[in-house]
Structures are given as structure tokens and as C-alpha cells.
Amino acid sequence: MALAAMLGAPAEASTAKWFVRLEASAPLVLAKGETAPAFSLVPQRVFHLEEDVATLGAKVIVPRGTLFVEVGDNGSGKYCAMARHLGSAFHCLADRDGDGSIEAYHYQQVFNEFYFGSTFGENGLARLIAPARLRELDPFTQIAPVAMGLRYAGGAPGGKVRFKLCIEEPSGAANWRKGLYKTCLNQEIVAAPDTGKLNLFGIEARVARHDDKRVSISIPTDVRIVPMTFRGTVL
User: How far is CA 176 from the centre of its chain?
Assistant: First the structure.
């Protein structure tokens, strides 16, 4: 019997769910090209791998302590590593037959530092030698959130104001420094030219004033945390 058949029907899109937590509480003033902390991303459900797990033949070993985010609805039985492993590959684990035991492994290709978005397909599908044990953590107190910075990219025709979202490098990682924004997401966020509204994944800020060298952004104080589900193949 083919391995895919043994492990159940092929999975559809795997979508991670996160909270967006606003960090800035005062107006942001940015020079062109400057990045400042704006908000953080916190997975709605996150799990700690309690011991090393390996696939049959020990071809893939996932180390104890790897953090996994749940993908799909609560209780879906599908999990992908919060941070990538090698290159663009993310470890994923699943209960494919619905018996409550996490027995399957695959990896996802996502070109981000963290598992934000939806992906399709299951690469390297394999059985685990022994079931994986995952322990749920409190995402607000037991893990470091993904810090995001807002970078002023300048003006655009039609009075539009452009921004980039950049990931702050995690502290403690090799050759990474706290406060360094090395990776920016591909797409830009553009403030509405008529109202100046700037949607930060459900948190609505506003461009108060700007020119090609500097921008001032007002930040709401009544909304701090909103739930967010990232759609599409990348964030």
C-alpha cells in the first residue's frame, strides 16, 4: 500500500492562525529607509516537542524543543514548525488517521523566516518511528513573539505612502542582533491616499503627515490585540 494511502487522504491548504499585538503606543516618526518596532505576531496555538522524533530509517530527525504552530482549525491534528529548519523547509507533523496519535511527518517550503501563511502539498511524507508528543504552551508568556518593524519606503505617484514590514532577527541566534531588521516581506503596505489609513493586519493606524524624507504615523490606543489568519501561499 502506498505511503500516502496509509497515512490518509492528501491534506489541503495548511493555514496558521496568529494574533497581531500592537507594540507602539505613541506616534511613530520615521525617516525614509528607517525601521521602528510596530507590532508583534503571536501564534494562537503553539506546542513544544517533548522529545526527538525521527522518520523510519532515521532519515529525518526533529529535535526536542522545536516549537510548532497549529495549522487549520483547533484540534486539526496538523502542526508545522514555527521557524524554518534549513533553507526554506519547515518541519510538519500530523495525526493523519484521526486516532489522536501524531504519527506522520512532512515538510513545507515557505520562503519566510516563520510559518505565517498557507501552503499546499506535503513534501517528504513519511511515518515516524514512534508517535510525537507535543505540549501546548501559553503563546503570550512562554515563547518570544515575532517582532515586526515598519519601514518607511517613501512616496509614490498619486500621493500614496509606502511601507515595508520587516522581521526583527530573534535574539540569541547566530550572527543576529536584537533590533536588526534583516528580512523584509516582499509586498509593500500602502496608506490610502485620501484618508491616510494604514491597515496593519487588522490594526488601523493613520499617516498624519509625510514628505519624501519623513513620515508621522498615529497609532490607535484602544485596540491592542486582534486575531489574524494569513491567507495565500506567502505572507
Answer: 18
pTM of the model: 0.78
Alpha-carbon span 180 to 114, nearest angstrom = 16
Domain ranges of the chain: 3-12+44-137, 18-42+143-229
Predicted confidence pLDDT, tens digits, the chain (235 residues): 344 443 444 445 567 888 888 876 678 889 998 888 888 888 999 999 999 999 988 788 899 999 999 987 777 889 999 988 777 788 999 998 888 899 999 988 877 777 876 666 788 899 999 999 999 999 989 988 888 888 998 876 667 888 988 887 654 444 334 445 567 777 788 888 888 898 887 778 889 888 888 899 888 776 677 777 665 444 4
172: how many CB neighbours lie within 10 A of its CB?
A: 8
Helix (H) / strand (E) containing 187: strand 181-191
Residue 25 parent element (H or E): none
Distance of alpha carbon 235 from alpha carbon 227, whole angstroms: 15
Task: Say how many C-beta atoms besides its own lie within 10 A of residue 27's C-beta.
Answer: 12
Per DSSP, the three-state class of 10 is coil
Torsion sign across C-alpha atoms 176, 149, 48, 57: negative
